[in-house]
Amino acid sequence: MSSTTPKRILVAEDDRTTARIYQLHFRRAGLEGHFFERAAPAMEAAARLAPHLALLDYELPDMRGLEIMRALHAVPGCAHTPVIFVTGRAKPSLIARLEDAGAVAVLGKPFSPAALIRQIENLVA
Amino acid sequence: MPQAAIPECTATQSRVELQTTIPADLAHLRTLRERFEAFLTGIDVCAAERSTWLVVLAELVANAIRHGARLDPTACIRVAWSREPDAITLRVGDPGQGPPEGAFAEAHLPDDDAEGGRGLYLLHAFADEIQTMHGTRGFEVTVRRAHHAPTTFAPADDELEQILDELSTCYENLSAFHRLSQSLLHADQVEGFLDEALRDFTTLHPFDTALVIGASDLPSLLVDALAGCEWFRRYDDVSASSQGLLETHGERIWDTPEERGDGLVRPGARQTDSDTLFRGAAMPIVAGTTTFGMVLVGRTREGARMRSHTVSSLRTIADLFGIALANARMRHDRAQAQKSIRELEIAVEIQRQLLPLLPPPTSPAWRVTLDQESARGVAGDYVIATTNTRGDLVVATVDVMGKGVTAALLASIFRTAFELVRDVQPVEVLMQTLNRVLCTQVGEMTMFATCAVARIDKEGHWLEHANAGHCHTLLFDPSGAIRELEPSGPPLGLVPTMTYTSDRVLLRGGERIHFVSDGCYEFTEHGAAFGWPKLRACLHAHRTHAPSDVWELLRGRVRAAAGQAPLEDDCTLLTIDVTAARDTP
Known about the structure:
The structure holds two protein chains of two kinds. Chain A is α/β, with parallel strands linked by helices. In chain A, about 45% of the residues lie in helices and about 20% in strands. Chain A is built from five helices and seven strands, in the order E-H-E-H-E-E-E-H-E-H-E-H. Chain A has helices at about 15-30, 40-50, 65-75, 90-100, 115-125, and strands at about 10, 30-35, 55, 60, 65, 85, 105-110. In chain A, helix 4 (about 90-100) links the parallel strand 6 and strand 7 (about 105-110). The model of chain A has no long low-confidence stretch (mean pLDDT about 90). By secondary structure, chain B is an alpha+beta fold. Chain B is built from 13 helices and 23 strands. A six-stranded antiparallel sheet of chain B has the order 1-2-3-4-6-5, covered by helices on one side.
């Protein structure tokens, strides 16, 4: 990964513990995380941040599922932002549906932090 | 005019707020705007939204100054703003009466040439909520718009960092367990699962070495299954230090060779596997009380230290390996047991169809009684009593090695062969012929049958007897004297060229001859072996009793000794009573 500008990761996650774990591992991996508990402000921030990748909770209080990804890709400059979904119900059918719709990865909870960082690094490199 | 002194915003955990008053003078608007902009920037409102908020502020304050305070600089305009967890609120009050009720209720886009109304339209388009109040202090407008600030985290102290690390480790383990348990459920072969799990682990935790070392007593079926895997090492193929690690049955983690402990490394010995690891971990693969081996991972050079979450993941992997290997062994054992059960079922069927216990022939010169009790539903003993073409009685008592299909088939071969050779004389040649046939059929298999064969001529004057490794045959003459007819060679099926000898006994009438199998005396009664002497004594004592009574007595003792447990061996008794008082040759 480039040692100059840290890669910006937009995170929409309403569980603070999960967000804290992301933050811990982002910091160690040299990633710059921008965290939001709701989809709407995350989308507003996306236009400003131009994130390299978005890590989205599948169910947020104000938006859920594919709607979140569509909202992100509708933000100017974010049409091709890679999206990783994190969900507590990672059934094969749901994973397939999200990946068919354009998500680059779907992680089930509990997720492996090491695997997540590795995946993010591969995608933003 | 000096600008109004606007205090700093006050902040609590949930609110950031400011309340101030300014003179009703548009000159103060600039400072107010600057302070409001700083507030909005500080709570991370994006630029576009900030601009609109500033326009809203300007509109409300300007209207308050112009209309509410009528541009009277001695009047005061009240301004307050706050940020709650989910919204930004702006409140502007003036001493005036405000517009008519309902003026703020809704707004339409004014015509191009209209003088006013644009501010109200903008307000409605922007705000989520607009409230107005006409009170004793004047008129007040409150504008509210939802705002969700980015999540911020207080810097983590060491303790929190440690807690998050532990939590991350738990997530790693749970994730690995969940991921690999699915593979375990669907894996057809244990080596496939272990291979996938090891690759999964080393993808996330790259090591120079990742091996599975089998325990010294790893079942051969598991050794065979894993032998082709590049990461598998047999116990005998690893270094003494690795063997030592395995023998401890515990886990070992080291960041220097000194920590690993090299006490078992032979000086000058070629260093392999764990010897070469600067940093490493050895984790036993255990299921229940069985140690199947260990997982050994490590780096040959200094590098990242062994981290707790890596060790924890390795522990999870090793646990899953234990489950997988135990399952594989259990599946194999179960398959073998089912195979054995099926074999017995087939053997029972063969015996029932091909080897029934046929009624013995009858003759005025002798009386033959056949009694048999099988152990576990299928007999390894076979007894045949028939006549040859000359009318002689020909009998055979056979004990086939083992149980199951093979034993039943061997007995079937014997029976067929016996039927074909029953006219062969003398009886030792009959025995030799039977032996050659069985040796040919058995081939390279280690199978044999003990056998006692006898022929009594149709007048009942002579007994010919040959014995191939079978129990002694007992002959009681009318006076009570006992003669034991012994084997003259090994069991049938072992040595094709074996020759046997026979005993020829003149029968005067009244003799009783017993052919038995070893199940009749090889049992434990009251803690001691029943044994041949007791059987002989028992049969001698009851030599004048009806054969059926003798059988019931013997069978009763065998059954009593077994108790509730099934019989260990078949019990066979063939009795020939030679008719008394005849003309001897």
